Amino acid sequence: MSKMKTAIYPGSFDPVTLGHLDIIRRASVMFDRLIVAVMHNQNKHPMFSVQERMDFLKRTTDDMPNVVIASFGGLLADYAWQQGACAIVKGLRAVSDFEYEFQMALANRKLNPELDTVFLMTSAEHMYLSSSVVKDIAVHGGNVTGFVPDGIIQDIVRRTRKED
Length: 164
Hints:
Strand content: 15-25%
Shape: globular
């Protein structure tokens, strides 16, 4: 009997976008278990708390039984080892993403030699999409429909109206 294959898809997910969801769906069929891990990064000032981001992810992935939502701080290579993961999943939008992610993949492999990084190209319709773009649109009163899962649009609208 083969060992269950676990992968980790890390990110800030502030907020989760349709591009993130596309990567989650595609990665979830490649692995037995996919941990979508919300990162704690004290250098960033997210719009949504870690708990809120985890809630958004849970609500938008509840139809994927092998997807687990979690959070972590510290080194990704260490977290992957603790979770028994064999791979990190990263979505790529452009060549510039690859250069940075390639360096991170090499560093993670040095720290955890059993860990591979799997790069998934973003679907063409989501290549321009990022959480930063979504936040910018929302803060300026734009409509984020078609950028984020429908189930979290009202949460984003409420938050951006509070910050005016």
